[in-house]
Design a protein that fits this description.
Elements lengths: L1 H7 L3 E7 L6 H10 L19 H12 L5 H17 L2 E8 L9 H22 L2 E9 L4 H14 L4 E7 L11 H9 L3 E6 L5 H11 L3 E4 L7 H9 L3 E4 L1 H6 L11 H6 L3 E4 L11 H12 L3 H14 L4 H7 L1
Parallel strand pairs: 1-2, 2-3, 3-4, 4-5, 5-6, 6-7, 7-8
Helix pairs in contact: 1-12, 4-5, 6-7
The structure holds 6-chloro-9H-purine and zinc ion (ZN).
Pfam families: A_deaminase
Family: Belongs to the metallo-dependent hydrolases superfamily. Adenosine and AMP deaminases family.
Organism: Marivita lacus
Length: 326
């Protein structure tokens, strides 16, 4: 128990966190009340987020985040999110941000949202030490045209603390290659690349993300375990997986943590990392993730040191920043 306690309190690098998806339900409910927005259907009777499955989750997510209307709202959200992460001993966090939710794809509005988020992050870094970097993310089910607008926003704001470009959303819609233009544009602007793949689709979607989008990290990627030649490729090319075990169990990708392939992938030499995805939606925190992995797989501090080192090395920040979290 004493050992679990010190594992829980280890400093952590988190690479896969959706900025709005980290909003505590009480925060969203409070904003809805202030703005007289009706959020019926978003919450269960106990106050937690209500959803049946992943596609329903995406629509509840959009409804909940519709109360985030101004750069000031995002500043408040950023403080709430980073304070919660810091309370879980997270020292460095990369969050997914979308112009689709922040200004509707207009570059000028997007800049104002980013400025507000950045100011709030600097203030929270001063108070808690936590470092924030941003990954601009297009939404797959909004289609390739909207993704191009997102990539243009990303290219315009690359550098400083905006370090990456990615894709999230409904994996059943479209193909990675439909988004290749946007990823090329982001890469040429100097952004590092990651893509959600292999969460809802099979190992083939991970191959497509690598071949067609040329990403260096994969969000989830857990279904790679069904294709051992692909696993070898991930090992050889040091592709890091942003694994979110609690999210996968909450959304029933796996029935329980014992059935989750994170340990098999790690044993085969894949660079695995641990993140929370949308923590209040999935009733998890970084401390919970660490505790549950220690309990399910018997991971000790040496294993967590390896996991966290993988995350620090795969972080999209500059080398000075990396040296502060290694
Ligand atoms: C997601 Cl678009 C989006 N938002 C939050 N979490 C996600 N997971 C996959 N796509
Ligand atoms: Zn995600």
């Amino acid at each position: 128990e004493e050992q679990l306690d010190s594992i829980m309190r280890l400093p952590k690098v988190e690479l896969h966190l959706h900025h709005e998806g980290a909003a505590p339900p009480g925060f969203i409910r409070g904003l809805a009340k202030e703005k007289s927005v009706n959020l019926s259907g978003v919450f269960k009777a106990d106050g937690s987020y209500a959803f049946r499955d992943f596609v329903h989750f995406l629509s509840v997510y959009e409804a909940a985040t519709s109360v985030l209307k101004t750069p000031g709202d995002y500043a408040r959200l950023t403080k709430a999110v980073l304070e919660e992460s810091a309370a879980n001993d997270v020292i460095y966090s990369e969050t997914f941000l979308s112009p689709d939710f922040c200004g509707g794809g207009d570059v000028g509005a997007w800049r104002e949202y980013l400025h507000a988020i950045r100011e709030a992050a600097i203030e929270t870094e001063r108070d808690t030490g936590i470092i924030l970097r941003g990954i601009v993310t297009c939404i797959r089910h909004f289609g390739p045209d909207q993704a191009k607008a997102t990539a243009l926003c990303a290219a315009e704001t690359a550098g400083d603390w905006i370090v990456g470009f990615g894709i999230a959303g409904d994996e059943s819609r479209g193909k990675p290659r439909d988004f290749a233009y946007s990823f090329d544009l982001a890469r040429e602007a100097g952004l590092r690349l990651t893509a959600h793949a292999g969460e809802w689709s099979g190992a083939g979607s991970v191959r497509e993300a690598l071949d067609d989008l040329k990403v260096e990290r994969i969000g989830h990627g857990v279904h790679a375990i069904n294709d051992l030649a692909l696993v070898d490729r991930l090992v050889e090319n040091q592709i890091t997986l942003e694994i979110c075990p609690g999210s996968n169990v909450a959304l029933n990708v796996y029935p329980n943590l014992a059935a989750h392939p994170i340990e098999k992938l790690r044993q085969r030499g894949v660079k695995v990392t641990v993140s929370t995805d949308d923590p209040p939606f999935f009733h998890t925190t970084m401390r919970d993730e660490y505790l549950n992995l220690a309990r399910s797989f018997g991971w000790d501090e040496t294993v967590f040191a390896e996991i966290n080192d993988n995350a620090a090395r795969a972080a999209f920040c500059d080398e000075d920043t990396r040296s502060r979290v290694l």
